[in-house]
Amino acid sequence: MNENEQFLQRLRAEDEIKRVLQLYCRGVDRREFDVVRGVYHADAMDYHGTYNGNIDGLIQWITRRHEGVAQSMHLLGNCLIDWRGEDVALVETYCVAYQRLKPDDGVSASNVGLKVGGSGQQTQVRCRYLDRFEKREGAWKIANRVVAYESLLLEDAPESPFAEGMQMATRGRDDPLWGLIALAAPHHGRSLTSKK
Predict the structure, then answer these.
(1) According to the 3-state scheme, what is the secondary structure of 78-128?
(2) Which sequence ranges are marked TM in the entry (predicted)?
(3) What is the pLDDT along the chain (196 residues), one digit of tens a residue?
(4) Which of 48, 98, 108, 110 could pair with 102 as two cysteines, CB 3.0-4.6 Å apart?
């Protein structure tokens, strides 16, 4: 492989790794936990703070935790990839996660690990994802993740300031995203819901 081919291979791998990170965020925010599972290798480990363990346990923990989360939005920032051969990369990605927690119903608050008041609360978590990516059977996926927390902002959630009739995000199949995907169904390019 010449230098140009190696450069193009790295660019392709970098694009695939960043797409995996984006799919993770989409999966959590839209409650598509099968998508979240798909970004990890089957034997991967995740050290998420209050959950540390395998991927089956992570999916159970996230599913239970997000019963108490009314809205969720992950934003990714700096992404530094340190190559450790052709099939291994160490990836540090900055993240800010905004979440609106449901009012305390006796169940939701305990799932998120916070005491939530009457109108709910808004959180802003600043963290970094420290990932070991491995390419196996042609696919880049997370083999090991550590979430390094930087800070947390927590405040009472105000009533919605949006005017009636505005298109609002949801965490299910009634989110506007799925209308866009339906429009793109005959499209033959890259899928909006997978790595292909």
Answers:
(1) EEEEEECCCCEEEEEEEEEEEEEECCCCCCHHHHHCCCCCCCCEEEEEEEE
(2) none
(3) 788 888 899 999 999 999 999 999 999 999 999 999 999 999 999 999 999 999 999 999 999 999 989 999 999 999 999 999 999 999 999 999 999 988 865 444 445 555 555 667 889 999 999 999 999 999 999 999 999 999 999 888 777 767 787 888 888 888 888 888 888 776 555 555 554 4
(4) 108
Ordered by where they begin, the domains of the chain are: 3-179 (3.10.450.50)
Q: How far apart are CA 99 and CA 88, in angstroms?
A: 32
41: alpha, beta or left, given left = phi > 0 and alpha = psi -120 to 50? Answer: beta
The answer for residues whose C-beta is within 8 angstroms of residue 96's C-beta and 6 or more apart is 74, 75, 77, 124, 125, 126
Contact predicate 130/47, CB 8 Å: no
pTM equals: 0.85
